[in-house]
Every structure is written in structure tokens, then in C-alpha cells.
Amino acid sequence: MSGGNTQGERPGSYRGFELLPVHLYVLAHLKKAGVDYARMMARVSGLPLGLIEDAVSDLLELGLIERDSGSAIKRSKARFKKAFEVHKHHTYYRLSREGELFMRSLDGEWLEGYFNNLLPEGWRIVRALIGSRDLGEVGKKVEINWEALEELKVLRFITEKHRKTEFFKRLSEFLGI
User: Fold this and answer.
1) pLDDT score recorded for residue 137
2) How many CB atoms neighbour CB 75 within 10 A?
3) Which end of the chain has fewer CB atoms < 10 Å from its terminal CB, N or C?
4) Which residues contact 110 (CB under 8 A, 6 or more apart)?
5) Does residue 103 contact residue 95 with C-beta atoms inside 8 Å?
6) Torsion of CA 139, 144, 146, 151, to 10 degrees
7) Which residue, among 6, 24, 7, 50, has the nearest Cα to 114 in the 3D structure?
8) 74 membership: H or E segment, kind and range
9) What pLDDT, on a 0 to 100 scale, did the predictor assign at position 99?
């Protein structure tokens, strides 16, 4: 199976660890940015800093990301930075070799299994949400029950007013869905 899973593992797990959307976001953000720090990932995604820090901690433990050493960072390495060179005032992270291989292995089939594992008809709901302004438009394409609606809020894909969150927009953009 692709995505680092072994036979018998559930979609969305990595070595037995259940990956949450915030974990995928951090991995996708670092793949896109090269290197970055937790506060900037939180700012870009609109998620609380504590949630990003917890995800970073989990991913460090799994070996999918690592701390970036050195005291300065060039724009060629940190693609989201505007200045040519930036002196580090935060702890920067990057994908480890294992993380790079994992991100390369993610394909449409893996993502479909992942989102379907998160919630019933998850892949169809996510794809419909990407192409819609809000949940009202999604309801015209896919039937969403109350439990799925609540799960979308818990996953931080939609707001209380049923609009897409910045986190969901960035996650789908960075994953190329």
C-alpha cells in the first residue's frame, strides 16, 4: 500500500499512529515551505498555536519531521520567506527523509481512503466542499447527516456558520486535492 502503511493498517495511520488532518497539514505545509516554524504554520492555517505545537511534537516523535539547525536561513530553503536571508528567532522544522518519502507516496487513492476513514462518504464530502462556497452548496451535491456535520466542525473543516475554514482551504491546496 502507498503512504507508508503496511498490510492490515487502517487508512490514515502511519506505523500504527492515527494521523489527524492537522498532522497532514503540518507535513504538507513543510513540503511546500521547505522549512518553517510552528507560529507561522498556525498563522497561515488559522489554527491555535497549541494544536500545531502538539502536531509538531507528534511528527517529531514519529520521525517524519526534524528540527532545522543553524542560525540563519536563506529564502531558497524557506520558500515562504520574503527576505533573502532571515536570522532564526524560532525553532524551525523541515521534513525528514522519511517524511519526504511519505509525502511523495500520498496519492489520490490514499487520500480517498484517509478521508473515508475520517467520516462516512468523507472523500465525496471533501471534494464537494472544495468546490463549494459553503455547506449549503455541498448539501446539493452530497447528503450530509448531523453526525458528519458535527465531525466536520470537530475536524475544523467548517465553522459554526457552515463556511470553509482557512485551515481546510490550505490543507486541500497543499495536498493538491
Assistant:
1) 82
2) 14
3) N
4) 1, 2, 3, 5, 11
5) yes
6) -110
7) 24
8) strand 72-74
9) 95
Residue 18 in grid coordinates: 492515527
Q: Are 55 and 26 in contact (CB under 8 A)?
A: yes
Q: Taking Cα atoms as reference points, which of 77, 85, 74 lies closest to residue 33?
A: 77
Nearest-CA neighbor of 163 among 131, 128, 135, 137? 135
Place of cell 540563519: 72
Residue 106 near residue 2 (C-beta atoms within 8 A)? yes
Compute the distance between CA of residue 128 and CA of residue 104 in angstroms, rounded to an integer: 24
Domain architecture of the chain: domains with CATH: 13-105 (1.10.10.10), 119-175 (no CATH)
Residue with cell 452548496: 137
Instruction: Give the strand order in the sheet containing 92-95.
Output: 35-37, 92-95, 65-67
Kindly state the percentage of the chain with pLDDT values over 70.
82
pLDDT tens for 48-103 read: 999 999 999 999 999 999 988 765 565 445 545 544 455 555 688 999 999 999 99
